[in-house]
Structures are given as structure tokens and as C-alpha cells.
Amino acid sequence: MSELKIPKHIAIIMDGNGRWADKRFLPKKAGHRKGADVLENILRCSNKFGVKYLSAYAFSTENWNRPQDEVNDLMDLLDNYLDRYIEKCDENGLKIKCIGDISKLSDALQKKILKLEALTEKKNGLNFIIALNYGARDEIFRAVKKILNMVLDKKILPNEITKSIFESCLDTKNIPDPDLLIRTGGEMRISNFLLWQCAYTEFYFCDKFWPDFNENDLEDAIKNFSMRQRRFGSR
Ligand code: IPE
Ligand code: IPE
Ligand code: MG
User: Fold this and answer.
1) Among 6, 16, 17, 96, which residue has the fewest nearby CB atoms (within 10 Å)?
2) Is residue 39 a contact partner of residue 115, using CB atoms and an 8 Å limit?
3) Spatial contact of 134 and 57, defined as CB atoms under 8 Å apart
4) 69 is catalytic
5) Nearest residue CA, atom 9 of ligand 2?
6) How far apart are CA 208 and CA 228, in angstroms?
């Protein structure tokens, strides 16, 4: 992989779990479970390729509108997933951070998230960013409210607000913008993921359903990224 340009930050919209399960006449939960295993493998491969940040869209602010049974299944899976990562945190070296409004999750889940973040805070492996109850519009809206409160509390004057102060109010504070965004499942849309941060991100769409996504697919995405010429509007 040495000749390849490795994206520092890859963001992934892991889509297609439901259709993967439907195709096999399995319950949707089986698709989500397989999807969670695939994410673990992709984290390992990303680390091997030298990626420094990987953001995974796990649950959107709009996903609450799914049938209650499916939401419950997703929350159960998340709970197991967090336990697994708490258990393995010394082994895999991941530094984990959640983005999104976790205050809407159960108290038990919130505690586990904070525990996992604290346990991995000093790790120096891959930065793993999990988007939970994440919606970019919600994130931007919350950032605007934080700034307004800073103004009201007289911590800052309106004319002192800069782009970097605004960015420090986003959930992705201190995380570089994604270089590459991968969406599986064949849809070509962003579905409210990282709208601010993806201003100059390269997009890669893959028809495979997320539970079928593997190391070769990740390598294909990185190869494709390597051939792109990024210009950032400057030439
Ligand atoms: C993505 O898979 C996972 C989540 C949104 C949690 P989907 O459940 O959206 O799968 P499809 O798009 O219905 O196939
Ligand atoms: C995006 O997938 C959200 C996650 C992968 C968590 P969705 O399946 O929810 O998006 P839409 O509904 O197809 O836009
Ligand atoms: Mg979907």
C-alpha cells in the first residue's frame, strides 16, 4: 500500500444492513449484528493501512423514526458493542469518541459511552469516532446555541466569533475533516452526516451492502481516493 495516498480520516455511512438481511430472509437485527462485526474488521484494516481517524455513522437523529422494535434492537446491539469495546480497550489501542446528542440515549448507555471514552482517552491507536443520535443539522444547531450562550454570558463579543470558535463548538472539535467518505448500500446521499465537515471531502459510493463490505472493498476505496486530485477550490 506504500504507493497509495492514505486518507488521514475516513468517514463511513454504513448502509444496507436491512436489505442484506431481507435478501437472506433473516430478521433485520441479524443484518445490524453482522454490520457491527464488519465494522470491527474495517477498524483493524484501516489501522493496518495507516488511517488515523475513522468515523462511523451508527445511528442518526432520524433513525428514531424506525419501528420501535428495530430501535430497541439497535440500542441492545449498541449496549453489547460498548461492553465489547470496554473489554478489549487494552488490546486494540483504539481511542474512542462519540459524536451526536447522547443525552437522548438511556442513562445506562450514556454511562458506558463516557466510561469507554475515559478508558481510551490516553490510547494512541486509531481514533474511532462513533456517531450516535447524530444529525449534522442538530450538531450545527447545538453549536449555534452554545455560541449564543457564550455571547449572553459575555464570554465573547459577537464580532469576536470566528470560524475556528464555531468549529470548536461542533461535536468534532479537534478532529480533522474527513478526507474520504464511503457510503455502502448503493444510495448516493449524505443523509445528514457531517455536513459542515465534508465541505471538501472526496465521496466514494459502493453498491455492496455494509455487511458484505470487506478489506478489499476498503482497499478499492483507498485506491480510488489515491487517484483523485484534490483542489480545494484553489486552482
Ligand atoms: C444502516 O442499515 C444501519 C442503520 C441505519 C442503523 P439500514 O438499516 O439503513 O439498511 P437498509 O438501508 O434498510 O438496507
Ligand atoms: C444513514 O442511513 C444512517 C446510518 C447509516 C446510521 P439511513 O438508511 O438511515 O439513511 P436513508 O434513510 O437511506 O437516507
Ligand atoms: Mg438505510
Assistant:
1) 6
2) no
3) yes
4) no
5) 63
6) 22
**In the block, residue with C-alpha cell 478489499:** 216
Q: What is the pTM of this model?
A: 0.97
Please count the CA atoms within 13 angstroms of the CA of 208 that sit on its side-chain side.
15
Ligand 1 proximity of 19 Cβ (cutoff 6 Å): yes
Task: State which ligand 2 atom lies nearest to the alpha carbon of 191.
Answer: 14
5: Cβ contacts below 8 Å, ≥ 6 apart: 222, 225, 226
Residue with cell 489501542: 93
Contacts of 7 (CB under 8 A, 6+ apart): 51, 178, 179, 180, 202, 222, 225
pLDDT digits (tens, 9 = 90+) for 39-84: 999 999 999 999 999 999 999 999 999 999 999 999 999 999 999 9
Give all domains of the chain, ordered by start, each with its CATH number.
Answer: 9-135+178-225 (3.40.1180.10)
